[in-house]
Give the backbone structure.
Amino acid sequence: METTFVILKPGTVQRGLIGEVINRFERKGLQLVGMKLQQLTPKILTEHYSHLASKSFFPAILASMMASPVVLCCWRGVDAVRVVRSLCGVTNSRDALPGTIRGDYGMSVQENVVHASDSVETAIEEVKRFFKPEEIFEYSPLNQRFVYSSDELSKKD
Ligand code: IDP
Ligand code: MG
């Protein structure tokens, strides 16, 4: 099982879309293993978006991500990183396909509703960056044997 990291961005909180977005992940069959409301800081965002530090829009992203508290959450499942990225859709919400979260709730590149880890390695780093070990929960969802086949459940990844 993989654990991936998602941010419901300030726009999602402000627009009252927290429940709708969380519902997308829940109904897919992903397991919520960590969740909190947090005000992000320049320090943590500069680490988190270090790959964009040289871009002209970097200050605007930081301001946008600090405009209100955000919801931070971690989702577990088989191939969870790739599944969650595909549920979110492409970065530009105007190009994101209908049925994806950005495609259904967004009209912007910057204000694109959610962040999701882009690889297994990044997910491990991001979960560590935003969550203490004791904020990530190990528990057995009762529905697992109906969400997956037994061979998928025993798969190690
Ligand atoms: P991702 O969120 O789809 O992984 P990244 O390229 O990692 O996309 O960019 C991180 C975030 O920076 C995006 O989600 C978006 O909010 C913002 N961003 C990316 N490219 C642009 C741009 O060209 N203009 C404004 N904001 C951008
Ligand atoms: Mg990214």
About this structure: The longest strand covers residues 31-38. The beta strands are 2-8, 31-38, 70-77, 114-116.
